[in-house]
Amino acid sequence: MRVVIVILACVAVASSAAAQTGGRNDSSPVIVQMSYYAQPGMEDEVLRLRLLAAEVLVKRGLNRGRVWRSTENPRATRELVGATVIWQGEFPNEAMLKQYEDVADKDADFLAIRRQMGTVTVAARTERRYYREAR
């Protein structure tokens, strides 16, 4: 009976901790995905700028992530305006995610690229999403 009570107490503590962190586990990987919607005729420039931003990450000691360009496929969802370029970065834990966010928010070279990106993308259509593995 004592074992059951101890197990239930452990489950209650773990559930409480998960609720306080929104289910976040600081040691679990996080994927950040940025979607860019190019102005007409600016698709190549959006791609060029995102590749430059990826190289800034490498220079700052971070993973460059992966840069994806949209492509046609008969099974693809048809959108009037879809994302032209997607960048996806995977960070093994919260500490590495914070390092990325510090670069994205404070690094002069990265900020210059972000400003340029704002001139070639559709206004208010750069999207950032965060994903954590479901277990």
Any overview of this molecule?
This protein is α+β, with helices and mostly antiparallel strands and 135 residues long. It has four helices and four strands. A four-stranded antiparallel β-sheet has the order 2-3-1-4. The longest helix is centred in the N-terminal third of the chain and has 19 residues, at 2-20. It is globular and about 40 Å long.
Helix content: 40-55%
Largest sheet: 4 strands, antiparallel
* Low-pLDDT regions: 3-21
Give the beta-strand count: 4
Structural class based on helices, strands and sheet pairing: alpha+beta
Strand order of the largest sheet: 2-3-1-4
Q: How would you summarize this macromolecular structure in one to three sentences?
A:
The chain has helices spanning 2-20, 43-59, 94-106, 108-120, and strands spanning 30-36, 66-69, 85-91, 127-132. It is of the alpha+beta class.
Present the secondary structure layout.
Blueprint: H1 2-20, E1 30-36, H2 43-59, E2 66-69, E3 85-91, H3 94-106, H4 108-120, E4 127-132
Antiparallel strand pairs: 1-3, 1-4, 2-3
Throw out a few tags for this protein.
alpha+beta; Alpha-Beta Plaits; 4 helices; 4 strands; 135 residues
